[in-house]
Design goal:
This is DUF4031 domain-containing protein. This protein is of the alpha+beta class. It is built from 4 helices and 6 strands; from the N terminus they run βββαββαβαα. Mean pLDDT is 88; it is low at 87-95.
C-alpha cells in the first residue's frame, strides 16, 4: 500500500493544505484516511485535503512525501484523476 502526500502549500480557509492520494485505488486511500481519523468529507474527487498540522501524522503513518506535480502525475498514471466538473456518468462513458 502506497499513499502519497504533497507539501502543505495550498491556501484555503485561513490554512495551508496538502493533498493525500493513492496510485492504486480510492479504497486504499479511504482506508488510509480512516486509519488517520480523517473525515470522509475531506475527500474531494480524487484526493483528501489535509490541513498542514496533520501532514506529520500522515508521513508517520506511511504516506510518501512527493511534490505537487508528482501527485498529479501519479493520479493520471493510475487512471484515478478526476477533474472538477466531471460527473460519474461522464467518467464511465469516456474511452
Amino acid at each position: 500500500m502506497t499513499v502519497y502526500i504533497d507539501p502543505p502549500t495550498w491556501p484555503g480557509h485561513g490554512r495551508l493544505w496538502s493533498h493525500l492520494v493513492s496510485d492504486v485505488s480510492y479504497d486504499e486511500l479511504h482506508r488510509f484516511a480512516e486509519r488517520l481519523g480523517v473525515p470522509r468529507r475531506a475527500f474531494e474527487r480524487d484526493h483528501y485535503d489535509l490541513p498542514s498540522h496533520r501532514y506529520p501524522d500522515a508521513v508517520r503513518a506511511g504516506a510518501v512525501e512527493v511534490d505537487s506535480r508528482e501527485v498529479v502525475r501519479l493520479l493520471h498514471a493510475a487512471g484515478l484523476r478526476r477533474r472538477k466538473g466531471t460527473t460519474a456518468a461522464a467518467r464511465r462513458s469516456a474511452p
